[in-house]
Amino acid sequence: MSWLVFALAFWIGAWALNTYLANSRWRGSLFVRVLVPMLFGVTLIVLWEGIVRGLGVSPVILPAPSTVAQTFAASTDILWEDFRQTVLKGALSGFAIGVLAAFVTAILIDRSAFLTQGLLPIGNFVAALPIVGIAPILVSWFGFDWQSKAAVVVVMVFFPVLVNTVQGLRETDAMQRDLMRTYAATYFDTLLKLRLPAALPFVFNGLKIATTLALIGAIVAEYFGSPTRGMGFRISTGVGSLSIDLVWAEIAVAAMAGTAFYGLVAWAEKRVTFWHPSHRRS
């Protein structure tokens, strides 16, 4: 019970400190913007530890964070192998192929009214298909290794990036396009110097959506067939063997990988679209 009391007291103190920092005159500083979410995360972990130990929750139901950390440290070889299989091979390769294919298709759609009317409705239909429906089919087509997981990721990231890119390419108004024509600019001159820069906020919005979809797709696809490695495979077998601490260690790796991937795209967006009003500080 002492653990539970300590966790609740820590939570109340951290909540008060976070509220003070969020409303202080330093709230716009980089230090506070990093400290507040970190303190919030630490508070959740301490509260989790206190509840599990204070109430005697079975590790089969919910292991304590300290137990998960010990399993993480003892299983780094397994976690690294699973990370390579799922993230580096499946998610990243599928992400790259899907984004490139979506971008090329968006340019073709922009050039063709027929594709605009015909392909986009089909794209919206395919995007609505559940992953649990298409993953087994793609696994049977491409085999049990990472290639089938990359194929699932391609399907998942293709249409969000395609729709956002097509919408972004339409953002320029008629006056801007007419001005480019008065300069005798070709289609590709207008695309590279006017329309693509204007579309970048939409493109990055699609990329940020795709970062989360890529990791989810690669992990879920492994539930339907994979070699004896991979994060989805390990989570599935870990639940079956009641190795819940290892399952949470895999979840932690997935969360860190997803956060880093999203953060990298968001960092690139700020560097490339620094001119956009959403990135201007008041």
Automatic annotation (TrEMBL):
- Give all residue intervals belonging to the ABC transmembrane type-1 domain: 97-273
- Indicate where this protein resides in the cell: Cell membrane
Predominant location category: membrane
Asked if the Swiss-Prot or TrEMBL record annotates the protein with the keyword Chaperone, the reply is no
What name does the UniProt record give this protein?
ABC transporter permease
Q: Does the keyword 4Fe-4S apply?
A: no
Q: Which organism is it from?
A: Marivita lacus
Q: Which UniProt keywords apply?
A: Cell membrane, Membrane, Transmembrane, Transmembrane helix, Transport
* Pfam families reported in the protein's UniProt record: BPD_transp_1
Q: Transmembrane region positions?
A: 26-48, 92-110, 122-144, 150-169, 202-226, 246-268
Q: What membrane topology does the UniProt entry give?
A: Multi-pass membrane protein
